[in-house]
Amino acid sequence: MHKIRPNPIFEQDGEKPVDSADKDNLDATEKNSTESSDSQNSSNSQETSDLQNSTNLASKQMKKREKKQKKKKRPIIIILDILIIGCFLGAAYFLLEPKLRSKRQSAIEQSAIAEIDAVLELSNTNTETNDIPENEPVTPSITITVNPDANKVPGEGYEDFGQGERIEVDAPVLDQYGNVIINFIGTLKIPKIDLTTPIADNDSLIALRYGAGHTAESAKIGQPGRALIFGHWFDEYGRVFNRLNEIEVGDEFTIDLLETKTRYHYVVHEMLEIDNSLLYEYLFEREPKVDNEVVLVSCKVENRMWWSTTGRYLAHGKLIKSEYLGSPKKNPLKHYIE
Fold it and tell me: For residue range 50-97, what is the model confidence (pLDDT) as tens digits?
C-alpha cells in the first residue's frame, strides 16, 4: 500500500504553491507597479505644484492689476472725497453763517441801544421841549467802530431810485485802525411790531447793517419837513424793518434823540406799497401832506427771497407831540458811619 504524501502542487491549506520564478516575477511586477505608482504620484505632484505655481502667479498678476487700478482710481477718489467734504462744509456755512452774522449784528445793535439809553437817562418827566434848561450837557451821538468788511448783508447796495445812474458814494470815515466809525443819534421804537433799533446819522451800507439810518439830505428828525429813515428787511424775523409791512394807519412810533434829549411821537397817517421805480417820486418829488413827518422805508421781500426785491414799503408818520427826557432825579448816596 502506498503511503499518502502531500501533493507537491498544493500546500496544506489547499492553495497553489508559489514557484520561485513566479515569485520573482511577482516581485518585479509589484516593484514596477510601485515604481509606476511613484512615478505617477511624482508626476501628479509635479503637475499639482505647477498648477499651484501657475495659480499663485495668476493671483499675483491679478493683485498687481488691481493695485494698478486702485492707483489709477485713487486720484479720482481723492477728488470725489474733496468735493463731498466741500459740499458738506458749504452746506454748513450756508446754514450757520446767516445766524452767526445776525448774532454779531444784534450784539452791536443792542450795545448801541444800551449806550443811548444810558446817556438819555430816561425818566418819567413829561417836561415840554421849550423848557429845556440852559447849560444842559449835549451828546449828539454814540460812536461805535466796526470792521467795514464784516457782517455784510446779502443783496445790500445803494439805491439808484430806478434811474440806473452811477452813484457817487462818499468814502466812510475810518479810525486809525481802519475801522468804520458809526454815529448813532437815537433810537426808534415801534410797539406794534415790538421793534427797538438804533438810528445812525447816515444811511450807508455799513450803518444799515446794525440798525436804521437817517438820510442826511432829508429834513432833520423833529424839524419841519420830511425826514427819511431807511432800514433793511433782514431775513431774521423782527429785525429792523422785517415786519414794517404789518404797520397800519393809526399805529404810533417814537424816536428818542440824543442831541435834543427829546422823544418825538408820531402816528402813521399813510402806509404805502410801491414799485421800485416810483421810490424817487414818492420820496423827493411829492410834497409832504403834513408839515413835520418821518417816512420809514424798507424793501418788499416775498417768500424770504432777499436777492429779489419786488418793491418798497413806506410808512408815513406825522409828528403829534414831543417831550423832553432830561436827567432823572437822583437820590443822594447814603453813607453809613459806624
Answer: 666 667 666 766 776 766 665 555 677 777 777 777 776 766 655 677
Residue 78 lies in a domain: no
Distances (CA, A) of 107 to 142, 191, 263: 15, 21, 24
Pair 316, 272: CB distance under 8 Å: yes
Q: What pTM does this model have?
A: 0.68
Which CATH number covers residue 253?
2.40.260.10
Q: What is the pLDDT of residues 248-260, one digit of tens each?
A: 999 999 999 999 9
Task: Identify whether 48 is part of a domain.
Answer: no
Residue that the C-alpha cell 449835549 belongs to:
138
CA dist 290 and 47 (Å) reads: 112
- In terms of phi and psi (left: phi > 0; alpha: psi -120 to 50; beta: otherwise), the region of 262 is beta
Total domains present in the chain: 1
Tell me which amino acid residue 98 is. Answer: P
Domain that holds residue 147: 94-324
